[in-house]
Each structure stands twice: as C-alpha cells, then as structure tokens.
Design brief:
- The structure is a single chain.
- By secondary structure, the chain is an alpha/beta fold.
- Helices cover 34% and strands 17% of the residues.
- Strand 7, helix 6 and strand 8 form a beta-alpha-beta unit.
- The longest helix has 15 residues.
- Bound molecules: magnesium ion.
C-alpha cells in the first residue's frame, strides 16, 4: 500500500491557536484575518507574554474544531492507503515547553482517530526526513522538499501567497477541502 503522511494542525484540526489568541486578547479574529503561519504574530509586542501564558495554561486540543469531513475521509482512506499522522511539536521559541504539545497532540489523535494504529503517529521536528508517497499539509515548506510523489497543500490564508506556478514547480497541488482530497486520492489509487 502507498503511504500517506497527514499533518495535524490546520490540516485535520483547525483554529486552535486562533481561539487561544482570541481568548487571551478578548478579540474576535477570524482565520481570514491572519496572513502569518503563526497566528500569534498578530499580537506584535505582546507575543512573548502570550507564549508564556499559552504554554502554562492552554491545551488547544481539549476543545478544537476539525476541518469538515476530515476524520470521515481519513478513516475511509485507511481502506486503500497506509495512513500516518505526522505532527511537528517542537516550537523553537519554547523548546522545553514543547514536550506538552507532543502529549496533547498524541492524546487528541488517540481519542479522535481510533482507526489509526498508534504506531503510525509520528511526532517530530524533521518532517522532511520521513519517507512517504503522498503528503498532505497546510505549510508550503513541509511539502517543498523531501519525499512524496503527490503533495497536497490545504488552502489557507497564510499559504495563499504561493502562486500556482510556484506550487507547480515543486509538484504541489492546492486543495480546498477533504471531499476534494478524497476524490483525488481514490481516483489515483490504482495509478500510483
Ligand atoms: Mg499544519
């Protein structure tokens, strides 16, 4: 079976960091307002204080939204593909505190995706070293280099600066939702 590596944040779950920023600042930012990969960049000078607060108090995975149909589609894909969930957890700005993120992410995947073998959960800081046939991620740089015959970039405001030509030159295809991902991958499963 072909191996698929699927990112977690903003690929399966969404808006956790946005919600944390909004609760901290008593604001109501929407994902369309955020151009930066790191939502908290919008806080400017308050970012450091927010990160201290965030790592001491918040588990965004306790109550987090998922992209529509993400879990249902991934479950279906396990019938045809060897599916791995691969989440980065190392925050270079808070190296020691990052260990909590590994635990929170692992817990969320175990609880919400029981059809994924726990041995197929990869928590890392070096996604580019993981061998796979298909990659699905919202971060351009995670798809730009490394393995993958098929690379799907989930459309988000923060990655809209990359043009079709730029994506094409790295063999990356922009996708808009999980229903589309499902039809692409089911259609190509015999030809890969
Ligand atoms: Mg992501």
């Amino acid at each position: 079976m072909q191996k698929i590596m699927i990112d977690l944040d903003e690929t399966i779950v969404m808006d956790g960091y946005l919600k944390a920023v909004n609760e901290y600042k008593k604001t109501n930012y929407q994902s369309e307002d955020i151009d930066s990969y790191y939502v908290e960049d919008i806080l400017g000078d308050e970012k450091e204080a927010f990160l201290d607060y965030f790592y001491q108090n918040i588990n965004i995975y306790q109550d987090i939204k998922t992209l529509p149909n993400a879990i249902k589609v991934i479950k279906n894909l396990t019938n045809y593909y060897d599916v791995y969930i691969c989440a980065a957890f190392v925050d270079p700005r808070r190296v020691l505190e990052s260990k909590k993120m590994a635990m929170y992410k692992y817990e969320w995947i175990i609880k919400n995706m029981p059809f994924i073998n726990p041995k197929k959960i990869i928590l890392t800081g070096s996604k580019d070293l993981i061998m796979c046939d298909i990659k699905i991620d919202d971060k351009f740089k995670n798809l730009q280099y490394g393995y993958g015959k098929v690379k799907l970039l989930i459309d988000h405001k923060h990655n809209q600066k990359y043009s079709f030509e730029q994506l094409n030159s790295y063999n990356i295809r922009r996708v808009y939702n999980w229903d589309q991902i499902e039809s692409i991958l089911l259609e190509m499963r015999d030809t890969l």
